[in-house]
């Protein structure tokens, strides 16, 4: 019994052509098959190399191999890229001269929510700033940030790491009782004695989302004075109401916790701890670091003025301090127009708005630029870019093409648009009009005499005058 052969229809350059299934199943020539495999491989390589996650993961692996002293991966990259392994190593070393702050990259970033990742980067950057400015004292100091108000979760630095080692992924996540809910990338726990101080304040003051313990020598010295911090400079006025508490170094009893809360009060965000430094708090990480900066400057200024005696110093009056504090707390741009001037070419009246900063926001963003320029890779999302973008052109700014040489056609074109003739007319006629009006040539009527007749008549003709003809 004869079997019918199924046929398939394919398109070729010459038209339609039918081939049998057996012919379609025949193997391709070896060179064509090799070319097809090479094309597929190149597509896969191109898609992988264009992936941001792959580049970040590759950089992380190479960085880890270099720290461990292994040269296997560098040799493999050298074979692939066709360049010496030493040169590849120098490229990666130059781009990773410091421990990056934002080490949550590649596949690992998928395990964090966007808000938590941003908060981790900002908190880790705060540790790096404290270290760069020399305001940290060993590993005992602690900075906490409230992560979730509903579940009362906090990010805390691992106890055992120096401030310059803290990264975004190394932070521990703890609850209000100091129990670690999620470990960071280290095996270290937290300083429970220090966290008790922070947790008491976080529990009593929900408005405080970040608390920074400062044991810098100048701050500790001022906390040991009976007079405390005096209003001698503008830095003191910017701190607002400064609370003072006689601190024993730990909060073991409920009575001590109540005394601490009574000393702090419902408004103050800066607490001097006798002989132990200060605790600077804020509604944001930016505000808490803002308080730390002014606290350090105020304490250093007072220590320099102490040799002359407090009786010889001029204190800032209470009214002046309040005015300085209120002016600094007003968001930037409030009570003003968003921009002082309007651009000359902006005919629609659009104003260039400046962002309204919260307390310490603009200063913190400037410090993040400093860290990024130094190669720390903060992962900070900037609200106000440093480089000014191009001024947008107004919508009604129509550039006249240089080929148009007759203003009359432009006026006629504008009138036709206003009357709605082009929009409501026949599309074919409209296209014909636009073709003639948009032509780069100029058309004019010329009367000429007939030729070849004894009685010539005047004939009106349309002549094309090009741009060169007009110019000549």
From TrEMBL:
<feature type="region of interest" description="Disordered">
    <location>
        <begin position="1"/>
        <end position="25"/>
    </location>
</feature>
<feature type="domain" description="Class II aldolase/adducin N-terminal">
    <location>
        <begin position="121"/>
        <end position="303"/>
    </location>
</feature>
<comment type="similarity">
    <text>Belongs to the aldolase class II family. Adducin subfamily.</text>
</comment>
<feature type="compositionally biased region" description="Polar residues">
    <location>
        <begin position="1"/>
        <end position="12"/>
    </location>
</feature>
<dbReference type="GO" id="GO:0005886">
    <property type="term" value="C:plasma membrane"/>
</dbReference>
<dbReference type="Pfam" id="PF00596">
    <property type="entry name" value="Aldolase_II"/>
</dbReference>
<dbReference type="InterPro" id="IPR051017">
    <property type="entry name" value="Aldolase-II_Adducin_sf"/>
</dbReference>
<feature type="region of interest" description="Disordered">
    <location>
        <begin position="329"/>
        <end position="355"/>
    </location>
</feature>
<dbReference type="InterPro" id="IPR036409">
    <property type="entry name" value="Aldolase_II/adducin_N_sf"/>
</dbReference>
<protein>
    <submittedName>
        <fullName>AGAP004852-PB</fullName>
    </submittedName>
</protein>
<dbReference type="InterPro" id="IPR001303">
    <property type="entry name" value="Aldolase_II/adducin_N"/>
</dbReference>
């Amino acid at each position: 019994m004869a079997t019918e052969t199924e046929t398939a229809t394919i398109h070729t350059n010459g038209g339609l052509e039918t081939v049998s299934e057996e012919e379609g199943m025949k193997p391709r020539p070896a060179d064509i098959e090799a070319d097809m495999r090479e094309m597929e491989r190149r597509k896969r390589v191109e898609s992988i190399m264009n992936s941001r996650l792959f580049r970040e993961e590759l950089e992380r692996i190479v960085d880890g191999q270099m720290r461990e002293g292994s040269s296997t991966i560098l040799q493999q990259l050298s074979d692939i890229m066709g360049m010496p392994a030493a040169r590849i190593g120098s490229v990666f070393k130059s781009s990773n001269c410091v421990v990056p702050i934002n080490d949550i990259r590649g596949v690992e970033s998928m395990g964090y929510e966007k808000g938590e990742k941003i908060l981790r980067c900002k908190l880790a950057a705060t540790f790096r700033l404290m270290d760069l400015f020399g305001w940290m004292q060993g590993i005992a100091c602690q900075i906490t940030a409230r992560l979730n108000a509903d579940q009362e979760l906090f990010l805390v630095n691992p106890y055992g790491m120096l401030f310059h080692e803290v990264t975004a992924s190394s932070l521990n996540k703890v609850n209000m009782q100091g129990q670690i809910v999620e470990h960071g990338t280290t095996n270290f726990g937290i300083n429970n004695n220090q966290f008790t101080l922070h947790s008491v304040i976080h529990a009593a003051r929900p408005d405080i989302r970040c608390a920074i313990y400062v044991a810098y020598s100048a701050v500790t010295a001022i906390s040991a004075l009976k007079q405390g911090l005096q209003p001698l400079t503008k830095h003191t006025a910017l701190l607002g109401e400064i609370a003072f508490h006689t601190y024993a170094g730990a909060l073991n009893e409920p009575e001590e916790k109540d005394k601490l809360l009574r000393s702090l009060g419902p408004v103050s965000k800066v607490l001097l701890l006798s002989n132990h430094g200060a605790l600077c708090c804020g509604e944001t990480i930016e505000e808490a670091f803002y308080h730390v900066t002014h606290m350090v400057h105020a304490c250093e200024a007072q220590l320099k003025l102490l040799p002359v005696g407090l009786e010889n110093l001029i204190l800032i009056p209470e009214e002046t301090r309040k005015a300085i504090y209120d002016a600094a707390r007003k968001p930037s741009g409030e009570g003003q127009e968003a921009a002082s001037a309007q651009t000359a070419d902006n005919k629609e009246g659009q104003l260039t708005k400046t962002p309204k900063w919260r307390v310490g926001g603009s200063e913190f963003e400037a410090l993040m630029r400093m860290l990024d320029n130094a190669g720390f890779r903060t992962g900070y999302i900037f609200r106000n870019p440093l480089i000014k973008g191009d001024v947008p052109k107004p919508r009604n700014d129509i550039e006249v093409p240089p080929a148009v040489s007759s203003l009359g056609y432009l006026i006629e074109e504008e009138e036709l648009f206003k009357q709605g003739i082009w929009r409501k007319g026949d599309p074919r006629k409209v296209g014909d009009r636009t073709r003639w009006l948009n032509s780069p040539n100029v058309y004019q009527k010329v009367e000429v005499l007939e030729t070849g007749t004894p009685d010539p008549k005047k004939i009106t003709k349309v002549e094309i005058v090009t741009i060169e003809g007009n110019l000549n």
